[in-house]
Amino acid sequence: MNYDLMKLFLTSSCIPKNLREPFLAFLGKPPEQIKLFFIPTASDVEDNKFYTCQSMDDFSAVGIDPIWYSLRFKTKEQIARELATADVVWVNGGNTFYLLDAARRTGFMEIVSKLVRDCRVMYGGTSA
């Protein structure tokens, strides 16, 4: 494992205007070619989905069509197979306790950790 090459992009409010250029540079290829899995699971138990919707709008504003990917009904096998095709895995904010439980229960935590450590996907996150 080469930890020097792991690519992480962590923010408190997704991709605000002042971070759009750095984010696109971080991606390393045109946004329309990016396969981004958007993990909204932390907001599954939240009443207000405003920030989740805002995050989706932020990706659209930079030319990315994110894939909505809730962990709620996924198996470990599905997650491993599907996330292996991603360029970016983006975990959105919300209830961190719920997210941690879902990440452990589904195997997401183990899978995404390995993908990021092995530099096979970039990891981004908002607030959670």
Give an overview in words.
- The protein is α/β, with parallel strands linked by helices.
- The protein has a domain at 43-128: Rossmann fold (3-Layer(aba) Sandwich), CATH 3.40.50.880.
- 38% of the residues lie in helices and 15% in strands.
- The protein has five helices and five strands.
- The protein has helices at residues 20-27, 50-61, 76-83, 96-106, 108-117, and strands at residues 8-11, 36-39, 67-68, 88-91, 122-126.
- A five-stranded parallel β-sheet has the order 1-5-4-2-3, sandwiched between helices.
- Helix 3 runs parallel beside helix 5.
- The longest helix has 12 residues, at 50-61.
Provide the descriptors you would attach to this structure in a database record.
Rossmann fold, five-stranded parallel sheet, alpha/beta, 128 residues
Strand residue content: 5-15%
Q: Write down the secondary-structure element order.
A: EHEHEHEHHE
Q: Termini distance?
A: 26 Å
| Arithmetic mean of pLDDT | 91
Oligomer: single chain
In the CATH scheme, what's the topology name of the domain at 43-128?
Rossmann fold
Which segments are poorly predicted (pLDDT under 50) over 5 or more consecutive residues?
none
Strand order in the sheet with the most strands: 1-5-4-2-3
Q: Based on DSSP secondary structure assignment, what is the total number of beta strands? A: 5
Largest sheet: 5 strands, parallel
Q: What is the CATH architecture descriptor of the domain at 43-128?
A: 3-Layer(aba) Sandwich
Instruction: Please work out how many helical segments DSSP would assign.
Output: 5
CATH H-level superfamily of the domain at 43-128: Class I glutamine amidotransferase (GATase) domain
The CATH class of the domain at 43-128 is identified as: Alpha Beta
The helix/strand class is alpha/beta
